[in-house]
Amino acid sequence: MNSLDDRYAIRSVDRAIDILAAVAGKNGLLTVDGIVTETGLPKSTVFRILATLTARRLLDRDEQSQTYRLGMLSLVIGARAMGELDLRRSARPHLESLVASTGETVHLSILSEDNALCVDKLDASRSMRMASFIGFLDPLHCSGVGKALLAFQDEPVRQQLMARMRFEPHTPHTITDPKRLAEQIVEIRARGYAIDDEEIEQGLRCVAAPIRDHSGAVVAAVSISGPTTRVTQDGLGDLARAVEACALAISEELGAPEHFAVPRER
C-alpha cells in the first residue's frame, strides 16, 4: 500500500480499490479471471468483493460477456472529481474553439501512473467519431497525448516511465523498440508536438501538444485526432499549429511562465 502509516488501513477496502483500479485500468471488460490476474488476489476473495461492488453500483456486470466495467456510482464520483478540476474548466472553451476550427475530435489528457487518462473529449463535427471516452486510458508509447506527456516530463520521470513500459503492439506501425521511442522523444521535444501515425489504430492519425501549469511543468496534453483521409501528412503542419495554439492558450490560463509562450521558428 502507498500509505505512510498502515495502522489504520482496512485490508478489504484496500483490495476493493485494487479491483476498481484494475477494471478502470483496462477500460472495463475484465472477467473474474482477468481481475484475479491483474490484482493477484485469490479468486474467492475477488468473488466476494465483486458482489459488494456490484450491489453498490460501483461496478456493473455484463451477463452476456461475463465482464465487469465501472458502474453508475463510480461514474458519478468520477464525474464530480472531473468537474472540480481547474484544468478541465480552464481548457473547455479552448477545446471547443479547436473543434470548431478543425472539425476533428479533440482530447484532453493527463498523466495517470503509466497511461494517459482522458479527462475531456469533444467529438468531431464530421463523420467517423472515435470510440474513446472520458476516463479512457491511452498507452504512452503509441498515442499522441501519451507521447506528448512522456516527452516533456523531466528526465528522471521519463526514464522511470519508459523502464516500466510493455511496448505492446497495437498496429504494424506501433513503436515497440525503446531506442526508437527515445529517438522520437528527441524529435518531439525539438518540434514541440507529438504525432501518432496509425500507431494505436490503423486509419487514425493524431497530433498532440503539451500543456504547462504555473510552475512550467507539463500537466496535460491536448490532441486532434481523425481519419487519415482527413488528417493527412500534408495537413499535419496546419493541425500542429492549431493544437499548439490551443495548448498555449490553456497553459496561459493555468499561469504558465511567459518564456514557454515564445513561438518556435517553422
Care to describe what's here?
There is one protein chain. A hairpin with a 4-residue loop joins strand 1 (59-62) and strand 2. Residues 262-266 have low confidence and may be disordered. With 266 residues, the protein is of the alpha+beta class. It has helices at residues 11-25, 32-39, 43-55, 72-83, 86-102, 144-151, 155-163, 178-191, 236-253, and strands at residues 59-62, 67-70, 105-112, 115-122, 137-139, 194-197, 204-212, 218-227. Helix content is 43%, strand content 19%. Helix 5 (86-102) packs antiparallel against helix 9 (236-253).
Query: How large, in whole angstroms, is the Cα Rg?
Result: 19 Å
Q: Helix and strand string, N-terminal first?
A: HHHEEHHEEEHHHEEEH
- The multimeric state of the shown protein is single chain
Put simply, the count of helices is 9
Total strands: the figure is 8
Low-pLDDT windows of residues: 262-266
Provide a quick synopsis of the model.
The chain is an alpha+beta fold.
Topology:
Blueprint: H1 11-25, H2 32-39, H3 43-55, E1 59-62, E2 67-70, H4 72-83, H5 86-102, E3 105-112, E4 115-122, E5 137-139, H6 144-151, H7 155-163, H8 178-191, E6 194-197, E7 204-212, E8 218-227, H9 236-253
Antiparallel strand pairs: 1-2, 3-4, 3-8, 4-5, 6-7, 7-8
Key terms for this structure?
single chain; 266 residues; alpha+beta; six-stranded antiparallel sheet; two-stranded antiparallel ribbon; 9 helices
